């Protein structure tokens, strides 16, 4: 099926944001990548921020329901840790500029950014928390608060994307090397988290 102009613009914006970051991207760059003129780009989206808003809406609209599906499923606790970590990293690999921009916009807009984009959407942690508490009671894992465990998982998945510019500058990692490392973290992060829980 042929892409609509709006689809081409969003794909182009994602590619440009990934390569140059939000601050380094210009509307002209996005128009060139989409193969359209700048006036047409402005007709569809008035600014980079509007473009980002649409991309974020699409990504969050896919990610949060998927994470909730994993958290409320009948998978074992360790299988949920693996699935959640893989899902987060996979989404960030496709949109590595997202975490840093979300933090910047959340701080800049005093919380209205998340209200506007997420509304009353929340993580459904009840089943996950219950499983953590059960495993602790059985002596299968060390005592840990379920939200502490979830925070550990998210931090290990998302921080490399937040710290990417500094990490690449300090280590000399190229874009391809960084992405390959993040691909490997789909396995490394859950293995590290699970190992940290074992008694």
TrEMBL record:
- Quote the InterPro entries the UniProt record gives: Homeodomain-like_sf (IPR009057), HTH-type_TetR-like_transc_reg (IPR050109), HTH_TetR (IPR001647), Tet_transcr_reg_TetR-rel_C_sf (IPR036271)
What residues are annotated to bind DNA?
Answer: 26-45
- Mind listing the GO molecular function terms for this protein? DNA binding
User: Which residue ranges does the record assign to the HTH tetR-type domain?
Assistant: 3-63
Q: Which interval of the chain is the signal sequence?
A: none
Give the record's keywords alphabetically.
DNA-binding
- Please indicate which superkingdom the organism of origin belongs to: Bacteria
Q: Which Pfam families match?
A: TetR_N
Its protein name is: HTH tetR-type domain-containing protein
- Provenance organism: Rufibacter radiotolerans
């Amino acid at each position: 099926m042929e892409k609509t102009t709006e689809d081409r613009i969003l794909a182009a914006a994602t590619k440009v944001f990934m390569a140059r970051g939000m601050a380094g991207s210009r509307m002209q760059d996005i128009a060139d990548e989409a193969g359209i003129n700048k006036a047409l780009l402005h007709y569809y989206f008035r600014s980079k921020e509007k473009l980002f808003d649409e991309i974020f809406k699409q990504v969050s609209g896919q990610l949060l329901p998927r994470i909730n599906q994993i958290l409320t499923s009948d998978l074992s606790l360790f299988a949920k840790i693996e699935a959640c970590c893989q899902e987060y990293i996979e989404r960030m690999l496709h949109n590595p500029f997202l975490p840093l921009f979300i933090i910047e916009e959340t701080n800049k807009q005093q919380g209205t950014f998340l209200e506007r984009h997420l509304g009353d959407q929340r993580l459904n942690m009840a089943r996950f928390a219950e499983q953590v508490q059960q495993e602790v009671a059985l002596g299968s894992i060390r005592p840990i608060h379920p939200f502490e465990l979830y925070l550990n998982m998210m931090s290990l998945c998302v921080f490399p994307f937040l710290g990417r510019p500094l990490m690449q500058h300090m280590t000399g990692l190229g874009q391809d090397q960084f992405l390959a490392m993040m691909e490997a973290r789909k396995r490394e992060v859950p293995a590290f988290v699970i190992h940290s829980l074992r008694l």
